[in-house]
Write a structure and sequence with these properties.
Blueprint (H helix, E strand, L loop, with lengths): L3 E5 L8 E9 L10 E5 L5 H5 L5 E2 L11 E2 L5 E5 L3 E7 L4 H12 L4 E7 L5 E7 L21 E7 L3 E8 L15 H4 L15 H8 L17 H13 L15 H7 L3
Parallel strand pairs: 3-10, 4-11
Antiparallel strand pairs: 1-2, 2-7, 4-5, 6-7, 8-11, 9-10
Length: 265
């Protein structure tokens, strides 16, 4: 079942257009966000919805190109159910909305995401363990015990403040998409230098690894505790082939769209 769909509020071709889908799903593992994974627990959005937080609907989380809908205007509605965060946006008569509506109907845009901030106590960090059981919340169909580490830094979201719900080109949760996307490059966690620890890396390297080191990496979450922070940065260094005291490469601008889609995580 496609989680993002475009339709019209009636049988007429001139009926108002809308889009709807799940911006988030519960108890599912995200893709590798650059050394850590993430899960969302049921009721994580309950407070935000109850408080009627003013949430926008954007494309690729980008407000610069226009706003598609907004809860305070009544053009964006959201609800939390057993599956996740469902939203519907009544689209405006703008070129952006018309183009996006057509792209979703064609299947060119199939995924959804959301951006947020986390209040105090809204997240926990633990060491997760991959599972080959499809019924397990740590299930990863691409996990290879002969090639990949069995454990990972895991962030669980239990309460968030919502900023936007967005159709996106790249989604952090493949379960919001009709087809999952796997990138083995970003899943590798083997260290580039077996004896390297983050204290061996320069401040410039650490700053680079925390932020825009590669488009496929999300910004490291605020208040990420040690030792998870060092573990995340070490894995990023391994994927990128950065050795201690070595040069800091330039960001990969070709993956800028994916970085923008992941930045809010």
């Amino acid at each position: 079942m496609t989680s993002l769909r475009a339709g019209r509020a009636g049988n007429s071709k001139d009926a108002p257009p809308y889009i709807e889908g799940y911006a988030s799903v519960f108890n599912k593992l995200s893709v590798d966000l650059g050394g850590f994974r993430e899960k969302i627990k049921p009721s994580a959005f309950a407070r935000a919805i109850k408080e009627k937080q003013d949430v926008r609907c954007l494309f690729n989380h980008n407000s610069d190109i226009g706003v598609l809908g907004r809860t305070s205007a009544g053009t964006l509605t959201m609800r939390e159910d057993a599956h996740g965060l469902f939203y519907r946006c009544d689209l405006p008569e703008t070129q952006l909305a018309r183009d996006l509506h057509a792209s979703i109907k064609r299947g060119d845009v199939q995924e959804c995401s959301f951006s947020f901030t986390i209040p105090t106590g809204g997240q926990t960090w633990t060491e997760g363990r991959f599972s080959k059981d499809p019924n397990d919340e740590n299930y990863d169909p691409d996990f290879d015990p002969d090639e990949d580490e069995e454990t990972f830094a895991s962030r669980t979201l239990t309460d968030v403040d919502l900023l936007d719900c967005s159709p996106v080109v790249w989604a952090a949760y493949p379960q919001t998409n009709i087809s999952a996307r796997a990138d083995k490059r970003s899943r590798s966690s083997k260290r580039f230098h077996a004896e390297a620890t983050m204290q061996d890396f320069s401040p410039e390297q650490r700053a680079y690894l925390r932020t825009e080191c590669e488009g496929r990496f999300a910004v490291v979450p605020v208040n990420c505790p040690e030792p998870f922070l060092s573990q995340i940065l070490e894995k990023r260094a391994a994927v990128l082939g950065i050795s201690p005291a070595g040069p800091t490469p330039a960001p990969n601008s070709d993956l800028a769209d994916e970085l923008n889609a992941l930045r809010a995580l």
